[in-house]
Amino acid sequence: MSNHFGKVIVAFGLFSLLHSSFSAAQYRSNLRLMHQNFFLLPCDIIAQTLLSLFLTLWGVTIIAGDFKRIKSIESYQNKTSDELLNRSSFYVFSHRGRSFFQE
């Protein structure tokens, strides 16, 4: 399937999701006007929300194209344990130990 077809499906799914959210908000405001308690959304709003969610997800997978397998063993096979356990984001250079080594 083409990328254009996926974009159309995503656009339709997002529009349908937006419509279902407005329907839910309108239903809640109507209940407030009639002074009734809210328990659950009607089944048609729930069904439209779920259908539009799955339609949007399907369109996104069409846009993404073919999925590729993740083979992490190949990238980690030739590395040593020092390279694997190196966490450079945890390096802290502005700490109080610096004051002990100033001349």
Written account of the structure:
The protein has helices at residues 3-33, 43-64, 72-76, 81-84. By secondary structure, it is mainly α. The protein has a domain at 1-65. Helix 1 packs antiparallel against helix 2 (43-64).
Write the layout of secondary structure elements.
Layout: H1 3-33, H2 43-64, H3 72-76, H4 81-84
Provide tags for this entry.
mainly alpha; 4 helices; transmembrane; inorganic cation transmembrane transporter activity; golgi apparatus; Membrane magnesium transporter; magnesium
Low-pLDDT stretches are none
How many strands appear in the DSSP assignment? Answer: 0
Distance between the termini: 68 Å
Query: In DSSP terms, counting alpha (H) and pi (I) runs of 4 or more, how many helices?
Result: 4
Amount of beta strand:
under 5%
Q: What's the SSE pattern? A: HHHH
Give the integer mean of the pLDDT values: 85
